[in-house]
Amino acid sequence: MKIKLLAALLVLTSGGGFAPPLSHAAEGTVAPPRYRIAVCDWMILKRQKLGAFQLAKEIGADGVEVDMGPLGTNDTFQSAITTNAALRREFLNTARQLGLEIPSLAMSGFYAQSFAERPTASRMVQDCIDTMKAMSVSIAFLPLGVRSDPAIHPELRSKVVERLKLIGAQAEKAGVIIGIESALPAAEQVKLLDEVGSPAIRIYYNFEDAIENHRNLIQELRTLGKDRICQIHCTDRDGVWLQDDPNIDMPKVKETLDEMGWSGWLVVERSRKAGASRNVKLNFGTNVTYLKSIFQKP
Predict the structure, then answer these.
(1) Which of 169, 164, 176, 96 is nearest to 130 (CA)?
(2) What is the pLDDT of residues 179-224, one digit of tens each?
(3) Residues of the domain holding 195
(4) Looking at the domain assignment, is residue 13 inside a domain?
(5) How many structural domains is the chain composed of?
(6) What is the pLDDT of residue 29?
(7) Domain with 273 in it: what CATH number?
(8) Is residue 180 a part of any domain in this protein?
(9) Cβ atoms < 10 Å from Cβ of 236
(10) In-domain check, residue 187
(11) φ, ψ (nearest 5 deg) of residue 106
């Protein structure tokens, strides 16, 4: 029933419900490919900087996942695009001029901060949602992180569920999707989503979580299924480029996603070559070129 409800609500993407990602394609142009490739602005060392778009263009990416900025001990993110309308317009105009998109906003501050325990977590997420609406972005990334992930802190699971229900209601009201990342096995992630019960809370899947925990990546994708995955961090831990990574059979990943009927954004976060982690163009350019050779081949 929940999956049917989710599918029904997602139909609203063309009718004022869940908004589509920011698109710059003019009417009558060729439809975008089924899979598109983006990079994280904070990982290309351009967190919430206009220069991220030009760099992404040079790398060959189709879009940039824009971070909400640092969190630290503040009540909310230090996000200039949230408070400065003129800067938001500049971001949007720059992306449009370069033919790029913003597939998602990221709340990477929750990697190290506790989503379950921070007293202003709801406000933080609402600030992200408000920014999404102002920039016509439909997906946000929320890592449950090292201090709240039920895979690490099962004692916080009930608190995480409680807060996900709250922000799920916030996201539903705004017509956007919050994609959570957890190191839980896929079957447990399904249970978590069922417990939350909101079509606006989905999984932002990261290949590294399966690999690091010695699980079968292909089976994890199949267990989650098309409707539960809103976006993918197509990445592994640093050390080798994706094309050289023995832990990921990328053609098989594409075959699996094809069979599932999934489509969307693959966002490169890490997979930087050992000894060259600061060479942004080399690392991300190599990974983006490889992913396009697999996912966007004629």
Answers:
(1) 176
(2) 999 999 999 999 999 999 999 999 999 999 999 999 999 999 999 9
(3) 32-295
(4) no
(5) 1
(6) 61
(7) 3.20.20.150
(8) yes
(9) 23
(10) yes
(11) -120, 135
pTM for the structure as a whole: 0.90
- For residue 54, CA distances in Å to 24, 65, 94, 122, 276 come to 16, 13, 8, 33, 21
- pLDDT greater than 90 at residue 20: no
pLDDT band of 68, cuts 50, 70, 90: very high
Give the span between the Cα atoms of 92 and 100, in whole angstroms: 9
pLDDT value at residue 28: 53
Residue of 87, 55, 49, 86 lying closest to 69 (CA atoms): 49
More confident residue, 25 or 105: 105
Across the chain, what does the average pLDDT equal? Answer: 92
* Three-state SS annotation for 37-70: EEEECCCCCCCCCCHHHHHHHHHCCCEEEEECCC
Of 152, 139, 168, nearest in space to 267 by CA? 139
37 in a structural domain: yes
